[in-house]
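Record type: ASSEMBLY
Status: queued
Input:
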Amino acid sequence: MSILINENTKVLVQGLTGKTGTFHTEQALDYHGSQMVGGIHPKKGGSIWTCGSGSAQGKELPIFASVAEGKAETGADASVVYVPPAGAASAIIEAIDAQIPLIICITEGVPVKDMVEVKARLADSNSRLVGPNCPGLLTPEACKIGIMPGSIFQKGTVGVVSRSGTLTYEAVYQTTTAGLGQTTAVGIGGDPVKGTEFIDVLDLFLDDDDTKSIIMIGEIGGSAEEEASEWLMEQAKLGRKKPIAGFIAGRTAPPGRTMGHAGAVISGGKGGADDKISAMETAGIVVSPSPAKLGETLLKAIG
Amino acid sequence: MNIHEYQAKKLLAGFGASVSKGAAVLSASDIDAAVDAMPGPVYVVKSQIHAGGRGKGTFKELPEDAKGGVRVCFSADEAKSNAKEMFGKTLVTKQTGPSGKQVNRLYIEDGADIDRELYLSILVDRETSLFSFVASTEGGMDIETVAHDTPEKIHTIGINSLTGITDADVEKLSAAFELEGAAKEDAKSLFPILYKAFTDSDMSLLEINPLVVLKDGHLRVLDAKVSFDGNALFRHADIVELRDETEEDEKEIEASKHDLAYIALDGDIGCMVNGAGLAMATMDIIKLYGATPANFLDVGGGATTEKVTAAFKIITSDPNVKGILVNIFGGIMRCDVIAQGVVQAVQEVGLQVPLVVRLEGTKVAEGKAIINESDLNVIAADDLDDAAQKIVKAVKG
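Status: finished
Output:
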C-alpha cells in the first residue's frame, strides 16, 4: 500500500501546455506509466497535447477548458498545478470548486494573501491540497506527481514527509541506499500557509500497514514540528506508534532572515531549530545531527 | 521587503490612518527646512534605518553618553542641532549587529501629547492560516519581552479572510486595548483602515508600537514598521519603488538581480546549493564540522549556466571566503549544468581558494565528467558528509 496516491490515481495537469508542465508531465508518464489523463487550459479546450520525450513519447492527452469538464470526462481524482504564481490560487480554487479530492500545487511564489483565501475555501470543501511550493508526491513504481526524480526511489517501507524538496531527495536516496525503500514520499512545501501539514501526513503513515517507519524533515519557521510532536505523543498513548527519524534544517540560520523558502524564518523569537529538535526528541523521534545521516539515523530508530 | 517608518506612515495616511505631521530628510541640507515646517513646540527627530531598537541605540562616532537614535527636542534650534549630529552617523541597535547602520535618512515629526501607549500588529498567523491582529496594552516596549513575561497581556484576534474585519472584531480589539470615549470611536474607522492597508498592499507584517491614546482622547499611529510579502511585489510597482538599496548588502542586491536566493553571513566557507532546505542543511553541516558558512545560497531548480556563473562570482567577491563548497542534489536541476557553470565561472574569475564539489542525482555522471576533464583544481566528494569534512579540512588545515 501507499498513501494518497497509487497506480490507479488519475491526474489532471493545470498548466500542462507551459514549459514546466510539459517537462514534468513527460517525466511522470515515463515513470511507471503514472496516469496523467488530461490538461486544463481555459482557451485551448478541445486541443491535444502530445508527449515529446521518454517512454511515453507520442502519447496524446486531451486539453479541457475547465477542471470540472476534465473531471467529468476522465474521472480524475487528482490535479497538479504548474500555473505561474499570479494565477496559481485561482487554479487551486477552480479545482476545489470541481471537487477534486487531491490537489497538488508545485508553484513557488504564491502570495500569502492568496493562500489565506485558499485555506478559507478548503475548510468546507471535499478537497485536500498539498503545497504550494512543494516537490509533490511519489509512490514508487506506481505514481509520480510533481518534480521528484524517480530514479532515486525504491519500493519499500519508509514514509517520507518533508518541508524541503532537495532534503526529501536526500532522505529518499539514503533510505534506498540503506535497503529500506519507500512507501510514499510527500513534500508538503516551504510556504508559511499551506494545504497539508505534518500531522495530516503522519496520520496517514501511521494508518498505512506497509509503512513501517517514517522520516520527517522540518526546517526553521513556524511551529508545525512542535505541533506534530505533541500530536505524536498523544497518538502513542493510544497505541499508534512507529519508529521515526527526523531532521531540522536551519540550526545556523540568522534570526529575521527568510532563508529561501518563504516560511523559513525565525521571527519574534519563535521558529528556531533548537525548540523544534527538543520537541521532536521529547516525542521519541530520533533527530539526526547531520543531513548526511538520515538513513543511518532511521536504522537506529528502528533498532 | 522592508520600508522606512516615514514611508510606512505616508502609506497608512493614504488609507486614512491618523499619523503625526512629519517631514523626511534625505540630505543634511534639508534639515532646517524640515524642522521649520513643523508647528512645534515639541519635535521628534527619528533615525530611519531598517532595524528596531533605535531609541536605545548608540552612535559609533559619538561619545558614549550621547543620546540615542530617536530624540525628543523642545525647540526648533535643539531639533536642528540634534538632527545635524545624527545625520550620516552609524547607529548600533540590538537588531543591527555590532557593525551598525549608517543613518542616511531622518524623519522630523511633530511631538504628540501622549496619555497611553498600546501595541498593535497585523501578521500572518501560521497556526490558523489567518491574518491576525495582535493587541496589547503594553505599548512602547519590546513585545517579545511582554509575550515572555506576561503572556496574558497579549490578545490575538484572527480575521476571517472571506468576510474581512467585522464590527465584532473591532469590538474585541477595543476591549483588549481598554479603549473608551473618543478613542473607541476612532477605533471603528482606524482598525478597518489598517486591515485594508495590510491586505490591499500585500503586507506580511504591520507593527504599530506604539499606537497611542493622546491626552485629547484620540488614537494616533506613532510608529510604524511594515514588511511586504516578496511573492506579491509583482502586483505592486509603487511599493517596489520604495525599496532603499542602501539598507541591503551589495552582494544580496546583485544576487536578487539574477533571481538567486542569497544571504550574506560572517563565516569563511562559501556555499552554492540547490534547494532552500539543502542550502540550510549545508550551512548546518559545515558548522557541525567546526567551521562557519559565509553565505546561504540557493541557485533554485531551474538554474542555467549563466545563473550558476553569476552565483559563483558573488561567492568569490566576498573577501572572507577561504573555501567553497558546491553541493547539488539534482532533481530538476541537472548536474551537468552546474558543472558547466562552475567551470565557466572559474575560467572568468579564477580560483584562489579550495573548491569542493559534491554532485548527486540527475546527470551526475555527465557533471562529474565535465569537472574531471577541466583543469580545475577541484576536490571531488562522494556524499554530503564527505564534502563537508573535506572543505573544512581544506580551510582549517
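Annotation: DSSP finds nine helices and 14 strands in chain A.
Annotation: The mean pLDDT of chain A is 95.
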